[in-house]
């Protein structure tokens, strides 16, 4: 039986996926679901296994063990046909700088085997999505970093794929350009495009993803809607306690002894879920818990 007929609601399905590079375990027993028409964020620090996972979905890297299904096709055996129905936006810019914006899109329309009569409309549609119509004749090396990233996304969409893979789509971009790309990704999601996006930006995952899988050392350490993960792991309120190291250590020890989870942030210690505590609390500043609290708590990594 075809996998799509078993699980028609999933654009991506991974079960117990493992990837070894020699003695290094890059991905360790990963389960991952991407329902059709949703945006799922792979959130984790550098080295968590996000990029390796993305490469396994395009068969650039072959899993050591486990099951991978993309758009109902089993990988790596059916990777060629699966790849034809998905769009890929890599982390590294690999645009052809000798070509214009329009020529880059025409090359990929041909590579994706669009009919000769379809290519012009496909290129125009991609230019419009990326808001690059007025830069169609510009060489790639004349574009800003944000424009180049928009062109990468447009290239991945030129054949109207059912699924889009975004590997760190806004890495290295300034906040204003990042916001522009978020609007583009959000529009694609609202139009029903299935999206898997790897990122280490907390705000990006919280802003765009319907559900998030947090990865650490090749494993999925938490999966769910951002708001639900915050409530489960960090509660509703956090108390930030400031002071010298000895004071922080004391507050941390007292909180842990009373069943509160904590995270150290250098100059302060954060006490999670203080709304559940009826007794006395140390002096500090209360704030609303967020996904960054969950990320640091589960991965042990500070946000870059």
Total DSSP E strands: 14
Helix share of residues? 25-40%
Q: Can you tell me the residue ranges where pLDDT is under 50 for at least 5 consecutive residues?
A: 1-7
CATH architecture title of the largest domain: 3-Layer(aba) Sandwich
Largest beta-sheet characterization: 6 strands, mixed
What's the CATH class of the largest domain, please? Alpha Beta
- Which value, in Å, is the CA radius of gyration? 22 Å
Number of domains: 2
- The shape is elongated
For CATH, the homologous superfamily of the largest domain is named as P-loop containing nucleotide triphosphate hydrolases
Task: Work out the strand percent.
Answer: 25-35%
Mean pLDDT: 92
Give the strand order of the largest sheet, numbering strands 1, 2, ... along the chain: 6-7-8-3-9-10
Structure commentary:
- Helices cover 36% and strands 27% of the residues.
- The protein has 304 residues and is of the alpha/beta class.
- The protein has two domains: 3-224, P-loop containing nucleotide triphosphate hydrolases (Rossmann fold), CATH 3.40.50; 235-288, 2-Layer Sandwich (Alpha-Beta Plaits).
- The protein has a six-stranded mixed β-sheet with strand order 6-7-8-3-9-10, with helices on both faces. It has a four-stranded antiparallel β-sheet with strand order 2-1-4-5. A four-stranded antiparallel β-sheet has the order 12-13-11-14, sandwiched between helices.
- Helix 4 (101-111) packs across helix 5, helix 4 (101-111) packs parallel to helix 6 (145-157) and helix 6 runs parallel beside helix 7 (175-190).
- The longest helix has 16 residues, at 175-190.
- The N and C termini lie far apart (45 Å).
- Mean pLDDT is 92; it is low at 1-7.
